[in-house]
């Protein structure tokens, strides 16, 4: 469904994403992890079109979308959330979501956008606050609004950038359930998250970015046992904790120098 081929992005000559090859199949839910500054948010920007590529190519459903502006990619079914939530602060929650619907769906009438917005607000648990101004929302509700705005596009591919950051454990459980339901409804999902328990539980496959480069990719338990991932991101103790949480029966393989993961 989505394919990045040799994708790079430089900021002032410094690489944020370097020669990245990465693909997502229709119907997958894939996690992306990596330390701060690894290039995760940049990658989302490159896929959604908010950032132009420096080099490489991005294909979506066989189409080269590398040079398409964000709204054209949205028409094709690609929606994203922003790590730093960016609502139109003076507008109501409902209006914010309507804008999402209108942005992503060519020719949608205002009444239909309103209907779509209300349906999505119901789904994310914000219906009672539809009339609130966006800047009156709590952190958790702002995250819900981000998700609602993206969902209003009726995406085929949903890119989630740390939608669980700052949530309480209960709110996080609700978010996980919601993401599962979205995925179960047929949406392909790419999820960036630092909360290991959440991402390991959600993802069928995980890709690890470090300094703009993919250092590992595979099923959660394999990535957790990857020595490079442990060194670059997880740390020994944390990796073991997560492994026992996953109930991995396999022992942690120590440095095997498996190159096929890189
Ligand atoms: N708009 C920008 N201008 C300049 N540098 C940027 C910009 N966005 C990101 N960067 C840099 O690119 C690198 C990757 O950042 P980012 O994609 O935000 O990482 P992550 O989301 O994995 O924490 C960092 O070094 C960051 O400082
Ligand atoms: Mg980020």
Provide an overview of this structure.
This protein is α/β, with parallel strands linked by helices and about 260 residues long. It has two domains: about 1-75 and about 155-260, Rossmann fold, CATH 3.40.50; about 85-155, no CATH class. It has ten helices and ten strands. The chain has helices at about 40-50, 70-75, 95-105, 110-125, 140-150, 170-185, 195-200, 220-225, 225-235, 235-245; strands at about 1-10, 15-25, 30-35, 55-60, 65, 80, 155-160, 190, 205-210, 215-220. The strands form two sheets. It has a six-stranded mixed beta sheet, with helices on both faces. Strands 2-1-4-5 form a four-stranded antiparallel beta sheet, covered by helices on one side. Helix 3 runs parallel beside helix 5 and helix 4 crosses helix 5. The protein is globular. Mean pLDDT is about 90; it is low at about 250-260. Magnesium ion binds next to helix 1. This is ABC transporter ATP-binding protein. InterPro entries: AAA+_ATPase, ABC_AA/LPS_Transport, ABC_transporter-like_ATP-bd, BCA_ABC_TP_C, P-loop_NTPase.
What does this entry show, briefly?
The protein is built from 10 helices and 10 strands. Magnesium ion binds next to α1.
Count the E strands.
10
CATH architecture group name of the largest domain: 3-Layer(aba) Sandwich
Bound molecules: adenosine-5'-diphosphate, magnesium ion
Domain module tally: 2
The proportion of residues forming helix, as a percent range, comes to 25-40%
Q: Give the integer mean of the pLDDT values.
A: 90
Low-confidence stretches: 251-262
Please count the helical segments: 10
Radius of gyration: 19 Å
Strand order of the largest sheet: 6-7-8-3-9-10
Oligomer designation: single chain
Question: How much of the sequence is in beta strands?
Answer: 15-25%
What form results from the Cα inertia axes? globular
CATH class of the largest domain, named Alpha Beta
What would you call the structural class? Answer: alpha/beta
- CATH level-4 homologous superfamily of the largest domain: P-loop containing nucleotide triphosphate hydrolases
